[in-house]
Amino acid sequence: MKTVKRILLGVLGFFALVIIVGFIILQNIKTSALPDYNQDVKLSGLSQGVSVFRDGQAIPHIYAKTEADLYRAIGFTMAQDRLWQMDLLRRVTQGRLSEILGKDQLETDLLMRALRIQEKSEQILAQSDPAIVEALQAYADGVNQYISQNPLPPEFKVLRYQPEPWEPVHSINLIGYMSWDLSMGWGTEYFLHQLRTEVSDEKIAELIPDLEHHKTTIYPEFGTIKVEASATLLAATKNLKELGAEIFNGSNNWAVAGKKSKSGKPLLANDMHLGLFSPGIWYQMHQVVEGKLNVTGVVVPGQPFVICGHNDSIAWGMTNVMVDDLDFYAEKLNKDSTKYWFDGAWHDLLIQQEIIRTKDAEAFVEELKFTHRGPLVNRFKEEKETPLSIRWLGNEMSNEIRTVFLLNRANNWSEFRSAVSTFKSVSQNIVYADVNGNIGLQCSAGLPIRLGSGIQIYPGDSSKYDWQGLVPFEELPFEFNPERGYVSSANNKTVPNDYPHYISHWFATPSRINRIREMMEAKDQLDTDDFKAMHADWKSKTAEQLSPVFLEAMQKSADLNETEKEALSHLQAWDYELTRNSVSAAIFEVLYRKTMENLVKDELSPELFKGIRGQKMLLENLMINLLARGHSVWVDDVMTDAEETFDDIIQLAFQEAVSELIQKFGTDVEQWQWGRMHTFTIKHPLGVVPILNKAFNLNRGPFEMPGSYHTVCPYSYSFTRLYETFHGASHRHIYNTANWNQSETIIPTGTSGIPASEFYLDQTEMYINNKYHPDWFEKEAVQSHALFKMQFVP
């Protein structure tokens, strides 16, 4: 018995030792890369010392004597907090995810290589101003010194690979990545092509936005003024979503002039609506070369310049123009698919061999083919019938890296416009305010000059439908100090219909912009608290428009049961606020979705019905067109002998909505609260692996959320991932030109990308509760609120 006992004790001791050793190893992996923000660092290449002050959110405020010193310190500092995210985004742009994540990423890698992002980046780098090149080189050197001197973040250890040296071109690649992410034509236009196999052109036309019914424009007077030159359904892109590397949804920005501001000076607000994941897409940072540069705002990890923010003279923020920036062409190939027919002759396809290596040491040799327009994309679209090529704005020459470099230094409206004139591939409406009392809004976009609307798939056998360049910057819309005292944009229709150039059909519906302007007009003067309330606004103009239509239809229904009657009474008493505890909001959201789905599902195969649920914009515009015209060819249910009306569709949708809510929460209607079904979990790319999520505490949530995709405060979900918030405001900024120290900001995540850091997701709770933290700017304020100080020394 003693022997058995000794053996058991020995076994238990062994397992205890294994657990202890395992715990120590895990803790080492989790924490070894945590930086000491108070530890001074020797940095080769510096000419003088650089100071880094970090505030209560560990946001770095970097003070240098020269620009080269500043950007070298920025590279090291950013790598301290976001190195693995930087490497992940770099691999996305290069098509090299398979090397770390396995062969499931092969199609994603091949698609990204087909876009030739780095090829364009190399061209931009070769023609960039020497000051920009020097800044990028210094930044890359700072990143590389961090890599060579420090333990790596845990993701590198979990995935068992080493980061390669950073190069200046990798920073420019991130512009191409954002350009692709903002592209409007890739998913929707090909889906319309697929629909033609099942429904008529008349029905397809009703899914396309009729811009006559989009009454609210960003630049309402631009069509009538003289222009003065001086004044996926796709597996590959689905993978990017799952990695947290596909980001775009929408945005808001606005500014008020001094006459509408309680301070007498302009206020500016911006919240770019992007993917909500961890680490977040933005890195907050303040950069100073004393006496020469003083700029703060948000930076994309992997490049050093502030994308949106303010310096000591101006502030700016961005929203997507929603340009139709990609066209498909039906090509005619020869028998062995090495040539394509164009303008009466056969032309050689450019055929490129790609070797894609995987983490399992496999290597796949794949072939990419290009016409003069761009890549053939059949394999990515699973199109077997027609050879398709694309022309994409991201491959047109632009220089966004120049734009942000100069924006960081601009002092007035003229310098601002000069800076944004090269912002073409990432088309944005850029809002402006300055310390001298001016406000403005500039459309900075690449608008292709082409025949037709850009929606259809063009015949590729001639040059007739090729792009003929881009609309000159001098002809793009802008506003400067409008009489109304404010400017605003929310991805809505850009200009009135008499503007001479085609921009897009794919604008956001007017719900957000109408609510923003309603709130702007509600008061004679606004202050920071008013801007915060606008950022946090959950009242829906969509619900305000549609609820009476739904209620009128339901009043014609005589056979409601008690639960349905109670649900209807909630909808009747609703104020159109999508709060967390609102029963009415839950009923409306399900009813709205069911109504849109019931309009189309009887005429589509299961595959295309699933596809259109992923194209919410088409369904929303079908509803807008139907309400404006009073009829639609989609209304009648082709599966029945009767001829249905829109009231019939609504009544059926209401019954189905109640049924869905009963299934989720039971028959007690008071339990149908919007926040209980509309939730948000902020996720890390590796958090999909349960054991990693638990070991490293990667994900946080779920949190109950208000709002929806049609409210100014947008917690968006897709119809294929019902009620799971995955897009929203990726930051909120309110800039006060009267006193920069009174500016406020928040991001959904935190400064650090290292999960063990106290600054990993430390801003999340503040963010979901619509709170902000100060955005300190003056040096005295920065120093007095600093919790950490480190010095880079030569």
Task: Describe the protein's architecture and organization.
By secondary structure, the chain is an alpha+beta fold. 37% of the residues lie in helices and 18% in strands. It is built from 26 helices and 28 strands. Helix 18 crosses helix 19 (583-600). The chain is globular. The termini are far apart. The model is unreliable at 14-19, 224-238 and 244-248 (pLDDT under 50).
The percentage helix is 25-40%
Report the span from N to C terminus.
68 Å
Low-confidence stretches: 14-19, 224-238, 244-248
Q: What structural class do the secondary elements suggest?
A: alpha+beta
Number of helices: 26
Rounded Rg? 27 Å
Q: Give the averaged pLDDT, no decimals.
A: 92
Oligomeric state of this protein:
single chain
Q: What would the principal axes of the Cα set say about the shape?
A: globular
Strand percentage, roughly? 15-25%
List how many beta strands DSSP finds.
Answer: 28
